Amino acid sequence: MRKPYEKPTIFKLHTGMMNKFGSFAYPLSRRVRTEIDSIPIKELVEKYGTPLFVFSEKTLRRKFREIKQAFTTRYPNVEFTWSYKTNYLDAICAILHDEGETAEVVSEFEYEKARRLGVPGNQIIFNGPYKPKSILKTAIKEGAKINIDTFEEITDIEEVAAELGIKPQVGIRLNMDTGIHPQWSRFGFNLESGQAFDAVKRITYGGQLELCGLHCHIGTFILEPKAYETEVKKMVEFAYRIEDEFGLKIEYIDVGGGFPSKNRLKGVYLPPEVAVPSIEEIADRICSALLSSLRPGDFPKLIIESGRAIVDEAGYLITQVHATKRLPDGRKGYILDAGVNILFTAFWYHFNIEIDRNVTGPSEPCILYGPLCMNIDVVDDLAYLPPLPRGTNLILSPVGAYNVTQWMQFIRYRPNVVLIGENGEVDLIREAETLEDIVNREHLPERLKLKED
Ligand SMILES: *Cc1c(COP(=O)(O)O)cnc(C)c1O
Q1: Which residues are recorded with the post-translational modification N6-(pyridoxal phosphate)lysine (predicted)?
Q2: Every domain range in the chain assigned CATH 2.40.37.10
């Protein structure tokens, strides 16, 4: 067969050093991946098609246990709670609940999903700025831990409590300056301005709720462990101030999540191995700050809401090269079958890109486009790859966090998701969508139906 003609281009080769695109020209062998947890990519693709999300149970459990160990060896009273919005596939949540995590939810949908999975209400932490009264009522009845976000929510909960004739325990969410910018001041009550203290006053004077917890979540993908130390010190200081002033007991200090995964953030040129602090370092800052600021003998529960750092590296996306084109600026463009519709985090990261076979030819700068008929559909504009024939599978990682929740049914159907179990079982944990899934909630008025003539 004759090869199609391709206009030659000249580019400089860089090997073993940083190229001008901020990535390394690895020897080819480092970039080939033929399996995930010993299951051949070929087998996965033949059975489930592409694009395909693949989760590793082994990695998921290992990442959770690393975090658990980092904290429980440093502080005696820790609760780990799974951030549903990071990845709320049943199978993923079930594994983490099996590891002992409670559920952290931020909407009625997530609350109901956790309950449906069998998580009791008293094992649920309910956060977020928007909690409709109907679900607040259910959550209060079922004993969930609610962290209040607004003054209106205080009133809502008081009304529900009065209706139910109970005095529920509640927490409040704080926001504060921890040196992280932009500051997430839109959630909860600001500490420095006195707003948080006003919220405490409002709750105690209301007399219908029992304040027993403080919550804060300073941001996401935090690369500065010191920010957590500042957060914890401010929370403990505030806890004692209100305990002393109002005779309350703060039973939990919930420091949120936001720990980074080993992903390469756009604009951060150091490789993740250098830029991302270890979980030990983060845990050390948090627990040392706690132990040095708590009063003797006082060990309130420390709550950790880590999402991304646990699940991101457990997820891969297999996507196939559909077509190739040479762009006017000389770069090569690839059209893949997965785009930003299912890979929301492509807006923030340069993923690791591995290919499923050895190919010959020099690597060159290229752009990876998704399948959407939209200019924004770019998976990576700084890839550096050898010439890939049509049908080559690319394995992108880490993609386990914030993709299978933030993906959109936009233009294409959402694909299969599989889980590789610890003993090499492969289970379909979410089936690819079909036309039926999408249209079965639509209603076409009778008068608009196409008539056959
Ligand atoms: C999203 C979220 C988390 C989890 O954040 P990660 O960055 O995934 O660790 C934890 N707590 C709250 C309140 C959140 O909104």
Answers
A1: 85
A2: 35-54+313-433
Q: Which residues of 396-406 are buried (b: 16+ CB within 10 A; e: fewer)?
A: bbbbbbbbbee
Tracing tokens 């480092």 back to the chain, one arrives at: 30
**CATH 3.20.20.10 residue ranges for the chain:** 57-309
Decide: 83 in ligand 1 pocket, CB within 6 A: yes
**CATH superfamily of the domain spanning 35-54+313-433:** Lyase, Ornithine Decarboxylase; Chain A, domain 1 (2.40.37.10)
pTM: 0.93
* Beta-ladder partners of 151: none
CB proximity list for 175: less than 8 A, separation 6 or greater: 183, 184, 185, 186, 187, 188, 189, 190, 191, 216, 218
**Pairing mode, if any, of strands 315-326 and 332-336?**
antiparallel
Give the sign of the dihedral formed by CA 41, CA 47, CA 48, CA 49.
positive
Answer whether 377 contacts ligand 1 (Cβ < 6 A).
no
Write down the mean pLDDT value for the chain: 94
- Let me know if 373 is a catalytic residue: yes
Please, which pLDDT band fits residue 269 given cuts at 50, 70 and 90? confident
Could you tell me which CATH number the domain at 57-309 has? Answer: 3.20.20.10
- Decide whether any atom of ligand 1 lies within 6 Å of the 188 Cβ: no
82 Cα–ligand 1 center, Å = 9
User: What is d(CA 112, CA 384) in angstroms, rounded to the nearest whole number?
Assistant: 44
Q: Is the pLDDT reported for residue 357 higher than 50?
A: yes
320 DSSP β-pair partners: 393
